[in-house]
Amino acid sequence: MYFLWLSQLCRGLSRPLGSTTQPIWGSVSRSLVLSSQRRIPEFSSFVARTNTCGELRSSHLGQESAASVKKILCEAPVESVVQVSGTVISRPPGQENPKMPTGEIEIKVKTAKLLNPCKKLPFEIKDFVKKTETLRLQYRYLDLRSFQMQYNLRLRSQMVMKMREYLCNLHGCGYRNPKLFKRTQGYGAKEFLVPSREPGKFYSLPQSPQQFKQLLMVGGLDRYFQVARCYRDEGSKPDRQPEFTQIDIEMSFVDQSGIRSLIEGLLQYSWPNDKDPLLVPFPSMTFAEALATYGTDKPDTRFGMKITDISDKFRNTEIRFLQDALSKPQGTIKAMCVPEGAKYLKRRDIESIQKFAADHFNQEVLPVFLKTNRNWNSPVAKFIMEEQRLELTRLMEIQEEDVILLTAGEHKKACSLLGKLRLECADLLEMRGMVLRDTSLFSFLWIVDFPLFLPKEENPRELESTHHPFTAPHPSDIHLLCSEPEKVRSQHYDLVLNGSEIGGGSIRIHDAELQRYILATLLKEDVKLLSHLLQALEYGAPPHGGIALGLDRLICLVTGAPSIRDVIAFPKSFRGHDLMSRAPDSVPPEELKPYHIQVSWPTDSEAEKS
Amino acid sequence: MYFLWLSQLCRGLSRPLGSTTQPIWGSVSRSLVLSSQRRIPEFSSFVARTNTCGELRSSHLGQESAASVKKILCEAPVESVVQVSGTVISRPPGQENPKMPTGEIEIKVKTAKLLNPCKKLPFEIKDFVKKTETLRLQYRYLDLRSFQMQYNLRLRSQMVMKMREYLCNLHGCGYRNPKLFKRTQGYGAKEFLVPSREPGKFYSLPQSPQQFKQLLMVGGLDRYFQVARCYRDEGSKPDRQPEFTQIDIEMSFVDQSGIRSLIEGLLQYSWPNDKDPLLVPFPSMTFAEALATYGTDKPDTRFGMKITDISDKFRNTEIRFLQDALSKPQGTIKAMCVPEGAKYLKRRDIESIQKFAADHFNQEVLPVFLKTNRNWNSPVAKFIMEEQRLELTRLMEIQEEDVILLTAGEHKKACSLLGKLRLECADLLEMRGMVLRDTSLFSFLWIVDFPLFLPKEENPRELESTHHPFTAPHPSDIHLLCSEPEKVRSQHYDLVLNGSEIGGGSIRIHDAELQRYILATLLKEDVKLLSHLLQALEYGAPPHGGIALGLDRLICLVTGAPSIRDVIAFPKSFRGHDLMSRAPDSVPPEELKPYHIQVSWPTDSEAEKS
User: Fold this and answer.
1) Rounded distance between C-alpha atoms, residue B225 and residue B328, angstroms
2) CA A401 → CA A203, A424, B376, distances in Å?
3) CB of B400 within 8 A of CB of B371?
4) Positions of E strands within A30-92
5) Is A251 within 8 Å of chain B by CB?
6) What is the band of A523 on the pLDDT scale with cuts at 50, 70, 90?
7) Exposed e or buried b for every residue in A409-425, given b needs 16+ CB within 10 A?
8) Which residues contact A131 (CB under 8 A, 6 or more apart)?
9) In whole angstroms, what separates CA A493 from the centre of its chain?
10) Is residue A12 over pLDDT 70?
11) Cβ separation of B47 and A254 shorter than 8 Å?
12) Is the pLDDT of residue A26 over 50?
């Protein structure tokens, strides 16, 4: 007995069934599951169906059953659900399709029954049929039938399952945490509030289980992990979801290298088998090096175009704006070589690059085109001495037809600018047909030794945590904590994949005094909100640390999906709306009474502002 | 290298280490994991520790390392965290403790380091030390170190992991659903609201993923399961949590028997190996039979004391109140036999039983004490004919020293009363030392054929869904839907364990017209709120059904914990408070602005009312 969504079946059964949802479902699961070398799930256990048609192969040839009833199948609309019994037979010579697993066979139908008809579809369910995302989200239950969504979601749940096996069965982690919590330090503004039945009392939906997982360690649970749903109320940030999922891990008696090895093993174990296996350990780089070489803390290391400091080479240059830069304290000159830039980049590309630099960094960028190494084509070419030219060529491995981008200024600013331009140029070069980044490559990288504190933007004299206030200082910098806190490195680590941050964590502070000093004295925060955590640390808290991986982004990169919304079954629109059920929705005032709240409607003027 | 919580270590290392958290942790996990016949998790992978001391056995005897530093260990307070290196040696003769896995050995300490001291504990961390639940919840991170909590949480996460293996790896289920949703039909009052950044717009935290899982089936995902966090705002109900966890399952092309087999297989597969294996299939019983025989829809079938209808035997009785009952339409006479009641039940027990019946059911209950079968001791004994006596004795298998409880009235009411009294008497008999219910017994039972609708309490002329409006009617009763809807049975099924409902589900309506008819015409509900679901059913929705198991209650029954709070790491108090972090908490008005809400403080009079 076969159950399937009817799709062009009426055009005759010799047509590949592969394009109906049910069959694809079958075949996706098969291929994925086989490739992941685990017991093949039974998709027809507990149901009347004997096979999904995607499962049928020439091995099923001639399986017993009987014939006819074309009428039902011809009259049933596309995407209707039908129940079919029949015989699996070979396709007529010449109609086989070797490209499809089901391509050798067709079904000679004996009985057919229309289980549920489908009314006219808002769009054709084909991956190649373009549809607006709004339409896709509004009819998500139809969009989910597409091959790509079925593939993404199945791969997601299989990767997660293998992560669970690795963490639970192999390394003894477990447990889940509550979601209704107390407002947490600092993040307040970004949290979702949940009114309780007590007047003026609110829960909040935590942005991460950070505090609970630390408390579990104090509770002697030793190893914790959960696939944690987290909530962040960020209004309409593109490619962010108000609720997102992270693989959340915490361990007692662990150090940085322990967590890193655990994560490397985790990703290696759960990595889809239709991709090249991962090589571990992943390389690691200090924050300082990442900034100096790639101008960012999440470098895409799939390609070069590294930033070079050429200050020394231009100590006595005649180029005015370079002179000015070097004359200033911490003035530097940085250069980046764009391979074959002279061939691929147009004049207007350079102009837009210079405009970007001026607009966003208030920086000057100087291009140098290399027709040949002898002939540098640039407004400042004549000021570049032969010896400088040879130096640079050697230092930056400059080739003919490259373009060098020069800029000058304060180290961090100059690097950040070139870091941005590096990605800009990469996109441009690829747009123009150059193959720069290997899309089949997964380039993981650990970033370590972040500064523990950063100067506050609004008031640079005060400090704020680079990550969060529970991060432990680097052992070798502890002595600087009182004297020069801004110089203290942290025991935080980020995991970067192809230029996206997909995870981060740290060794935590387990000493109550140190935690209190950092919160109260250095960060000037109100410790009352965290008294329960500070208190817990006083009762024999073990040294501990952890990490969280952003699952949505990870799966997004693994599947190559354009948006995280393509790896989530029912995502919110980028405005945070559920376009299918139309949430959030209004609530009549009387139904707000039990929660002791009322809506404060903005005045017109406020409404205009927002 | 060993890391452990110090507990009485200062009294000399010959004392069993088993009473420190770390060791117990080790030993619990060990025993559980071994018994569950899966790869033993590695508890010291990725950390500097070589062993938790609970792992140490005589097989470790003489393992290399060095000696001394008693001072640190003697001065460190109980429950401090220490790092110890040393040699595992045999205990001195006579000090072995065969009852403990670690009982043959002790550690000759070479080096010891105090990693984190513990200040004076609010209570001693011993299972036998009684503490108020308030204190336990306030210091949950200490309570979690107790043997029992470690056992409960570990067993929970291992059972859940095995459920995942069964559902994902063996039967191809997967996927997760969003939590921020639209308010759902009917339940509104019980939902948590989440204010959005749009004036007057609210999300809600769903009480169950019901709609999403049905939409996944329409989306062709065929088999769904998730360990779903659900939210129900019930104020202060004892042994209910505002957030709870359910094993949530939905399948396409499935019928009742399919779901039942799946669940039986699931529980059998995930059942702890230190318990007797489960026998499947579980017995099943119709709702009507459960009511008639046990006076409830969740009978505890670990013991008898069934209800018997003896109306026929008393057609022409002279006992007045029985006469009256029979004279009324649907009048019945019911009897229940309390084994050895004459021996165990005191006069005042019977009186309190009669009072309960009068107070809660406005019913009369007549006791008959059987000294011997010849001599029935009861106010009405003389009205019970010899032949009736023999009839009853045969029918109810009455023995000497039993007590019969007689009542009369409308079927449902009389049964419900005796159902309550059955449990009352069971408790009384056990209190008096009788062994009635085998506590090691797990007695599963399916209840089926519930009525699809019930008359509304406030207005019995109107109908409401017995469970929820998506439940499909029983195929053989469809013809009654228009004429006598109250007679229609549903395709809902409940799973009962030892008298507690631990799960329920149904085959769903997949026909849009039928769904609309039931919502609009029979239930008089506003279909607008569900338009997205109704619309989805029109696009070729497959026949589908599902079930949800209450995980907290299930684990509670398996572990024999007194409260579900004992199987949740960080539960809320029965008032819904987090006593550790003191949530819910107040929020200053200015921080409510972004959510466009303000608190409406109750007037004194209102405050008094609530």
Assistant:
1) 50
2) 61, 18, 114
3) yes
4) 81-90
5) yes
6) very high
7) bebebbbbbbbbbbbbb
8) A123, A143
9) 17
10) no
11) yes
12) no
Beta strand extents in A298-395 (DSSP E only): 307-309, 331-338, 365-372, 375-377
- Tell whether the model's pLDDT for residue A163 goes beyond 60: yes
Q: CA A89 to CA A75: how far, in whole Å?
A: 23
Q: Which residues contact A484 (CB under 8 A, 6 or more apart)?
A: none
Q: Are residues A581 and B532 in contact, defined by beta-carbon separation less than 8 angstroms?
A: yes
pLDDT band at A373 (very low <50, low <70, confident <90, very high): low
Local structure of residue A518 (DSSP, 8 states) = I
Residues of chain B positioned with their CB less than 8 A from the CB of A33: 172
Q: What letter would DSSP give residue B489? A: B
Q: CA nearest A592 in B: which residue?
A: B193
Closest CA to B15 of B93, B96, B72, B73: B96
Polymer length in residues for chain A: 610
- Which 8-state DSSP code applies to residue A476? G
What is the reported pLDDT for A75? 86
The per-residue pLDDT for A24 is 26
pLDDT of res. B48: 74
Q: Tell me the two tokens of residue B496.
A: 């009962």
Cβ <8 Å between A258 and B47: yes
Select from B22, B220, B599 the Cβ nearest to the Cβ of A21: B220
Q: What is the C-alpha separation between B495 and B489, in angstroms, rounded?
A: 17
Dmax (CA) of chain B? 92
Q: What is the pLDDT of residue B399?
A: 87
B362, B437, B373: which is closest to B404 by C-alpha? B373
Select the more confidently predicted residue: A551 or B33: A551
pLDDT of residue A34: 30
Mean pLDDT of chain B: 85
The A residues from 500 to 519 touching B (CB cutoff 8 Å) are: 510-511
- pLDDT of the residue at A489: 98
Q: What are phi and psi of A489, to 5 degrees?
A: -85, 155
Q: Tell me the helix, strand and coil percentages in chain A, rounded to 5.
A: 35, 25, 40
CA distance B1 to A253: 11
Rounded to whole angstroms, how far apart are CA atoms A470 and A534? 10
Check whether A15 has a pLDDT greater than 60: no
- Output the six-digit token pair for B227: 């360990």
What is the percent of chain A where pLDDT is above 70?
87
Could you give the 3-state DSSP secondary structure of residue A377? Answer: strand
Q: For an interface test with A, which of B83, B120, B176 has the most A Cβ atoms less than 10 Å from its Cβ?
A: B176
- Integer Cα distance of B402 and B359 in angstroms: 25
SS3 B529: helix
Alpha carbons B338 and B403: distance in angstroms, whole number: 5
Contact A139, A57 (CB under 8 A): no
DSSP A364: -
Neighbours of B609 (CB within 10 A): 8
- ipTM of predicted assembly, 2 dp: 0.85
Which among A174, A220, A251 has CB closest to B145?
A220
Report the alpha-carbon distance of residue B248 to residue B505 in Å, rounded.
10
Interface mutation target, options A45, A141, A590, chain B, most CBs of B under 10 Å: A141
The length of chain B is 610
Q: What is the per-residue pLDDT across A278-292, written as a single tens digit (0 to 9) for each?
A: 999 999 999 999 999
HEC profile for B354-374? Answer: HHHHHHHHCCCEEEEEEEECC
Reported as a pLDDT band with limits 50, 70 and 90, residue A129 is confident
In chain B, which residues have pLDDT < 50? Answer: 8-38, 64, 66-67, 186-188
How far apart CA A357 and CA A414 sit, in angstroms, is 10
- Give contacts of B508 with chain A, Cβ < 8 Å: none
Q: Which residues of A touch B190 (CB under 8 A)?
A: none
CB A344 within 8 Å of CB A435: no
- Secondary structure of residue B175 in the 3-state scheme: coil
